[in-house]
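Chapter summary example.
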Amino acid sequence: MNFYSPFRAWACAGAWRACAVVWFTALARSWWATAAHAGGTHAAQAKRRDRPHRCSAVVSPAPNGWVPGGAGVRGFTRGLVLLAAWLCTTAVAPSLATTVSAGYSHTCSTSADNVARCWGSQQTQGMDAFRMDDVQAGRDFSCALGRLGTVSCWGTRNDAGQLGTQQTYPSGLQVVRGLQDVRQIAVGERHACALAQAGTVYCWGDASQGQQGEPARTAVADATPVAALANVQSIAAGNGVTCAVQRDGRVVCLGAGSGLAGAAEAPLTPRQVPGISDARAVSVFDGHACVLRAQGSVACWGRNDHGELGTAASAPHTTPVEVAGLPGAAKAVSAGKGFTCALMGGDGGTLQCWGSNASGQLGTGWPFKASQAPTQVVGISNALSVSAGAEHACAVLDGGYVNCWGAPGNDRLGIGLCDTHTAIYPGVTYERPYFNNAGCLASMGAITPHAVMGLGPNHDIELVLRWAHTALPGVFSTAPLYWDYIANYHQHNYADGRAAAVNVHGTPRLLFVGPESGGQVADLGPLAHWVRQAMEGMAAHSGLQLMAQPYMPIQSVPYCQLIVPFAVRGTQAGALPAGLRPISIRVETDNGKVAEIPVAEGEHWTLLTTDTDWLTLHTRTPGQPIPAGMKEEPVYRGVARGCVPGFTTSANASVTFFYTVGGQKGQLRVRAIVGSVS
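The structure predicted for these 678 residues follows.
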């Protein structure tokens, strides 16, 4: 069976349109009917963990009225569908990418193991040895937040000291002097800023438009405190502007580029954004700014040449205008140059963009015309973050995949200057220009989302399909005859008439066709869920063991600190890899509370251990014998901590440790009780 029969008919009906699949949840509903015959373990777990999730298996109904769970398909529903129901109760898999920042002509991201990557006009060659929590892109330069709270910058321009040095043509990473304990960075066109843990702000680079406040100056090469910005929760930087969200929810901006009344005449004066006292985040780029408010609404001000404020194109607004037409509450907003994008909450992670679409930066397909009304980005349903740049935008998806769309200049999209396959997304209808089936115009760029090379799902697709051959032998009884990569679908074809496929661009989804689905294409949900299931299955064969002891200090203020000491060892000599890097710890209590917290510290040790304890810090002085009942072995020992309101002690919980080895994702799980320490 090949792509040109069921998948082609399902995905490509119509002359130049991708057709919509008929969505219904028969597979998911049938799970409850079949699980009763399956033995109870999975059913009990699913009922116990039942929480609201937008997750279901989907199928195109067969003409003969085939219903999943009927004769001949019980094995299938007990396998793929039963696992799909279990997956609905779990959280996302560890990521390839955790951040993304779209600049003027390049884009940067950081991975779960803190490796930075940039594409377009700026690259990151030779920087793999540096561990970075975040990278932000400006105009021809980038800055990175290091693991220890330091900041480094690099690029091809340093005309205003934006690299944190007075050298005219510096090479390599430049450590910005005068910074420590930094928790956030923001990069504008020619300046950058850092927010310290204490809530103070430091900036360097271009100061000619007043964006660094008093005193007046043209450029600053060293990080300098910005006295006008105090008690700050988050920051943003753009062309000639620096803005900060203060801890009381107000927003204060500096610089002529803020778009606020009086800013052009007196740019050094800090100005509070009128009418805003409940800000959660602020975003600026070049010409306008937007703020995300506490209830999920978005308000914007500044230039409005293309409807980027969410209203009809007009003269600039010096006070915020609430964006109308968003389909619900937003959880993030990003201002680009002449357009804006928002990440929606409560719907799994769709994106809405509005404003200029001259380069396809709204991601809405054909025709590429401006829109003052928020319009949904095609093909993405599980975004975790979004970043709007000069003429393009990018998003990190669940699973760590990065998609970009918009202008292709200098390959800022990272997709090979439009050398892409046709972007067809499961269950999505959109217009594409008849003269370019790839949906990627050489002069205009990608008008819909495309996966960034090296940050797409190809590795995970192979991981899931290889795991399926072992975990579901009744369905995938033979090795694949061949695989296709046609019209951005990665497809495995089997001798018994079955086929499995995953779309590469947009939100990757696992599709299946075979006798069990009545010859129709079944959409089994996002690939990221199946990656988690595959890793869960492989964890038993990883050769690693996890021990964890979560607890809450009862005297901490506020009473929300969850601390998880943990240790990982190999089940046999040499099994603990030297390159193991932690990502995070997830604690999920039996009463439905879930928290994922970062690993604050960790390192490799050689410890004295027992069969039941490899967490306690027992070491041996050289020359001393190993005590009876103990052995000496390598252990990775660390601690994760975070503030998690609503957690209680004495709760039974599952603790999951996410990690990478050589860029490959993994996870380990153990049961524990949340303790308390006074």
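To summarize the output: The helical segments are 6-11, 26-35, 41-48, 74-87, 458-471, 527-539.
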